[in-house]
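Run folding on both entries below.
>entry_1
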Amino acid sequence: MAIIISGKETSAAIRAELKKEVEILKDKQGLTPGLAVVIVGSDPASKIYVRNKHRACEEVGMLSRVYEMPEETTEEELLSLVDTLNADPEIHGILVQLPLPKHLDEKKVIYRIDPKKDVDVFHPYNVGLLSIGNYTLSPCTPAGCMELLKRYNIEVSGKECVVLGRSNIVGKPISMLLLQANGTVTTCHSRTKDLKDVCRRADILVAAIGKPKFVGADMVKEGACVIDVGINRLPDGKICGDVDYDAVIDKVSAITPVPGGVGPMTITMLLKNTLLAAKEEL
């Protein structure tokens, strides 16, 4: 019987721990971790994400500030706000909600955020620290995956790990984190030859390619652990992952469901990064 790796339960446990840490930081150091979230335009999905982040901050006792800017905001205006937040001692984490409207240069905006306050871990300086294993902050979704493996006592060291996907947000950083945990890592992508054979070697398979139910039973090794990062909406409105859950459930030893697996961990790890960034100020 496969272990169902619950991100919902794990996330709730971590938030309870973070709440206690925040209280201690306030009482002993007089410091309240603060997160600023900037949203430009009125993308409905982005607005939901921002609302959820704001609620999560309040839940653990952190300061949360949301800056809503109109669609026609200029690059100069957005960069000016980032500069203001960089200099604000009450703000320890800055997150600019992506995607930005097309007339704004995402790269320029990300590069402008002070690396110490880059709680998304998109700045090249922080990506560099991650790659050499000398980091405080780690990208939220990959960090959430690693936390799930840790809390469910799934050993990475010495295991064959296969990552499906090479995005800068998930694929590349999760490959680095697995490597630093002493996994033997193969990163797959659209040009990988004999993809099914490569995936079948995996003791730990991470799916992060954004294709609904792409991973079937013929791609999974008997007894593998499967971490499904995908969140896809089907024509009938239902949510599914990159893994065909029903097809592989009897073959795997552990799996994250979608929804309720990796998803809830992302905002929780954002909160953790904000706390870590605040502690760096002490």
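>entry_2
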Amino acid sequence: MIKIIDTSEVKDFTVFARRDEKKNEEIEKIVEDIIENVKENGDKALFEYCEKFDKCRLQSLLVSEDEINEAFNSTDDYFIETLKQAKENIAAFHEKQLRNNFVVTKDDGIILGQKITPVEKAGLYVPGGTAAYPSTVLMDAVPAQIAGVKEIVMVTPPSADGKINPAILTAAKIAGVTKIFKVGGAQAIAALAYGTETIPKVDKIVGPGNIFVATAKKQVYGKVSIDMIAGPSEILIIAEPSCEPENVAADLLSQAEHDKMASAVLITTDKEFAKRVAEETERQIKLLPRAEIAEASIENNGKIFIVDSIKKAVELSNEIAPEHLEVCVDNPFELLPDIKNAGSIFLGKNVPEALGDYFAGPNHTLPTSGTAKFSSPLSVDDFIKKSSFIYYSHDALEKSHERIEDFANREGLQAHGKSVSIRFNKF
């Protein structure tokens, strides 16, 4: 049963935002060993891990064009059209994120500017295991494509028969993925970070995964860039008592079914409404194919907070900084200015989180574990670099050289100053 917590006596909401941050040293060591093995043995290590973890013997890591086309041709037209429409929506949203080069020219011979360059190669991790995620393919690949990334490399674990889920391959074909490899887990992250005989080294790795994938991304960061360290999925719903309890319960369970450690939280102002949602959640769990996972999630991390006002609900939400925030009230735009910390915000009573997962357009790769306080959803920005450039004429430098030399000397870096002064007074 989901826990109901009355916060009427609570003055400091930070107590509800605490998360378990214990470091799992055993997993850290396992991942470290996997990364070292892939660095040293390349493809050989990947084939061995595939046999060990995925229970299949592969002849090739690379997914062939024939396999991709076979998957595409076996996918029904309705779903293909859905994927295409979703891609269009995702592209339309992310195209608005494109940054421009700029140049500032001054009259005295100074030119300043910014140059935008996409990363050369991006690696996309797409999970396998208990569920297939063609939506993640679209969410990761489309922004990379819009940014101008030349090579988009996807890794995803195969099933025991050595095949990749057809929906994932179909989504990859529609999204414009360049190459696809049958490898998952920490070993896939290591391969993307360091390269093997078959898998190219990339500049950036994006995409969610289990604790081993997240740990591997953390360990290779610095060798390559990563998008974020993703934790278990989260949903927080601010709901007025006028909401339909069955809708709110269904939305809570939409994240609870992801993972036994997923977090589903409701904040409301009415105890009776809270009880009705709790009862409805219990009823609906039993109807889910993934009932065992959802039930464990609700038992571990499910909560309903009772607050004395919607304003307090927003304050508590900001402290928790959820991955997904549903604002189920009649006038959600009135609250939007006060919402400071959330990965993605769903406004109104007709906007279930699943709309963002699959179709609306904003990205579903989002900051978790409270990191929405300082980080953002995956975007086109994740696949670009910004370089500044400077041009000064001799006359322009002469006007400023004494100030630059003085600045350098005050920092005790005389060679810096001399690199300027030598152009005017030899030493």
